Amino acid sequence: MPADKEIDEKSLSRKYRTNVSRLIRAWKKGLNDMEIASSTGIDPATLYQIRSDIELTHRQLRLTRQKNRHFLLHGLF
After folding, report:
1. Would you say which domain of life the source belongs to (predicted)?
2. Minimal CA–CA distance to 60: which of 7, 5, 16?
């Protein structure tokens, strides 16, 4: 299951009042923040904050998965 499906894009979209799914697709295509900012009109600082929120959430999900996998492999549950 892809990690980006576990990130609450609707919540982030409401928080930043923009279409976060569209931004994620643009980043996956390889566009940089300045290109996205010029095409969407979103402030580059806001894009940076959105990216930081997504990366933090993704990191937390990965750590949680690693902990769960460790407990399952070693029978510590």
Report:
1. Bacteria
2. 7
Residue 74 and residue 64 in contact, taking contact as beta carbons nearer than 8 Å = no
pTM of the model: 0.77
pLDDT, tens digit, 9 for 90 and up, residues 29-42: 999 999 999 999 99
HEC states along the chain? CCHHHCCCHHHHHHHHCCCHHHHHHHHHHCCCHHHHHHHHCCCHHHHHHHHHHHHHHHHHHHHHHHHHHHHHHHCCC
CA distance 62 to 70: 12
